[in-house]
Amino acid sequence: MAIRNLIFFGLLIFVPISIAAHFLGWGELVVFITAGLAIIPLAGWMGTATEEIAVVLGPSWGGLMNATFGNATELIIALIALNEGLVNVVKASITGSIIGNLLLVMGLSMLLGGLKYKEQSFQSVVARVNASSMNLAVIAILLPTAVASTSMGITETTLQHLSNAVAIVLIGVYGLTLLFSMKTHTYLYDAGTAELAEADGAIAQGGDGPLAAATSTDTDPHDPGEGHQPNLKLWVPVLLAATLVVAVESELLVDALEVATEQLGLTSLFTGVIVLPVIGNAAEHATAVTVAMKNKMDLSVSVAVGSSLQIALFVAPVLVLAGWVIGQPMDLNFNPFELVAVAVAVLIANSISSDGRSNWLEGTLLLATYTILGLAFFFHPIIPELG
User: Fold this and answer.
1) Long-range contact pairs involving 17-20 (C-beta distance under 8 Å, separation at least 24)
2) What pLDDT score does 155 carry?
3) What H or E segment, with its residue span, contains residue 359?
4) Which among 116, 219, 226, 278 has most CB atoms closer than 10 A?
5) Residues 95, 341 contacting (CB under 8 angstroms)
6) Where are the domains of the chain?
7) What pLDDT score does 238 carry?
8) What phi and psi, each to the nearest 5 degrees, are found at residue 327?
9) Cα distance between residue 66 and residue 307, in whole Å
10) Rounded-to-integer distance, Cα 76 and Cα 78, Å
């Protein structure tokens, strides 16, 4: 069994520990840390189950399932935080997921892959299409903030209506990106699909267990290898059970969030932008780095950028509409500094990926940008309104 599998299996011990810490009153900090560690392997199992079920469903429905459940863990955490009224934390987690995937994940992948293979290549056409979609996402979250900042008498109700309308447009665009990648222009993604089949074929033959969670809008579901037939009677219950336990752990995590972050000396902004996205995306991050070190940069970039697109075009709009439905209004009026961070991340990621080639220095530049932004968020003053 791979070392990563042993680590993921070992982290499952934090599921009962976090529940015991909650009911036995071991303190909010202990609950927060153990619940966060428990979510990491659970997210991995959710990703693996989704991939296995997608194989059986076929390219079209399987691709839709991958795209929909690719960021299920982050969505669950955000929905619970939103229900608790932690709107600013939810907005920060959206920002953090986007910049984390574009800078941290892609940076690590390019750095470690570049140290091993000197220079790697991926589909520049797909990179340009993704860049255009990310530019739209930046515009979509920038304009409501700009309207709020430049309109003296705008009401919260008006801003909420604007955000709802923008959210519906973004979800429509997300659906069109799925149509583009899985139906009308699948030939652009053939190389990535082939690499995905090869990489996950190795996983299915006894490699990476929970780390097979490489879900993306940019790749079709795959045949993971000759002789491998996923067992739906196994993976459907695994997906349901993992989702249920993630919901429980997310509830514990969110309940302990305010007290724990205060004890750790962290602001709610830093926690939302840096800590929560790392917890929710850990398994997917590991997959992107792993396949980059196997010289599969098409797949690695697809995981990183595809996940960012899912957050911007699907998860964020769903949260806006969900908040409106459950009576916890959430608009797209972000902290201006968060918008600066997203714009910077998209700008440098698009610049580096536009030529379809990568090396260790470009990975270092992405990681340096993420580090600088992380430091800025760490020293940024506490948001006056927590929720």
Assistant:
1) 18/249, 18/252, 19/248, 19/252
2) 87
3) strand 357-359
4) 219
5) yes
6) 3-379
7) 87
8) 85, 20
9) 11
10) 5
- Angle subtended by helix axes 257-264 and 28-57, to nearest 10: 120
DSSP sequence for 18-33: HHHHHHTT--HHHHHH
Question: How large is the greatest C-alpha to C-alpha distance in the chain, in angstroms?
Answer: 65
Q: What is the pLDDT of residue 228?
A: 58
Which residues of the chain, if any, have pLDDT below 70?
Answer: 1-5, 58-64, 66-68, 70, 188-228, 382-387
Q: What is the pLDDT of residue 115?
A: 92
Give per-residue pLDDT as tens, 151-191: 877 888 899 999 999 999 999 998 888 888 777 777 766 54
Give the length of the chain. Answer: 387
Q: What is the pLDDT of residue 375?
A: 95
Distances in Å between the Cα of 231 and the Cα atoms of 56, 58, 269, 368 are 9, 14, 42, 43
Sign of CA dihedral 44, 50, 53, 55: negative
Whole-number pLDDT of residue 64: 63
Structure tokens, 116:
């091993």
- Residue 111 corresponds to which tokens in the numbers above? 């750095």
Backbone angle region of 265, left / alpha / beta, with phi > 0 → left and psi within -120 to 50 → alpha: left
Q: For 249-259, write each residue's pLDDT tens digit.
A: 999 999 999 89
pLDDT at 382: 59
Residue 58's region, left for phi above 0, alpha for psi from -120 to 50, else beta, is: left
Q: Kindly report the number of other CB atoms within 10 A of residue 5's CB atom.
A: 17
- Phi and psi, residue 357, nearest 5°: -135, 150
The C-alpha torsion from 225 through 192 and 43 to 3, rounded to 10°, is: 60
